Amino acid sequence: MLSIMLAFILLYGIQLLHPAWWWVFLAPAVVGAVTARSGWSGFFGCGLGAGLAWSLAAILELAGDGSIVSGRVAAMLQVGRPWLLVLLTFAVAFLCGGFAGMAGYYLTGGRGKKAQR
After folding, report:
1. What does the pLDDT read at residue 111?
2. What pLDDT band is residue 112 in, cutting at 50, 70 and 90?
3. ∠ at Cα 77 (17, 21), nearest 5°?
4. Which of 28, 50, 81, 116 sits between 20 and 30 A of 20, alpha carbons compared?
């Protein structure tokens, strides 16, 4: 739960200050390195945090001025409706953030691993 909230807050806050696509990798990797107890907890916690952050940004863009652009992108990607882009955005951010969180955990040496006998 901590990794979900921390990844969400860190990623969404950074993207408000400096919108760049690669933050979806860097912020969850840092969170995964600090808070994850296993590779899978880093994957799911950071993935959910990143997915929720990007989904919130997509929803706010869709509800604001970006509905015309979202409609055109939805037509270009042949997904039908602009609201399906929010689901697609969540899926992409979940996978990117999840793998980044898992990588962050494993780059720290897997602190939670049991001692080998």
Report:
1. 67
2. low
3. 20
4. 81
For 18-41, give one letter per residue: b (16+ CB within 10 A) or e. Answer: eeeeebbbebbbbbbbebbeebeb
Residue 40: predicted pLDDT: 93
Q: How far is CA 52 from CA 9, 46, 81, 95, 112, in A?
A: 10, 10, 20, 12, 26
Q: Which residues contact 23 (CB under 8 A, 6 or more apart)?
A: 11, 14, 15
> What is the spatial distance between Cα 33 and Cα 101, in angstroms, rounded to a whole number?
7
Residue-range domain boundaries for the chain: 2-106
User: Structure tokens of 7?
Assistant: 């990844």
Residue the block writes with tokens 């919108």:
19
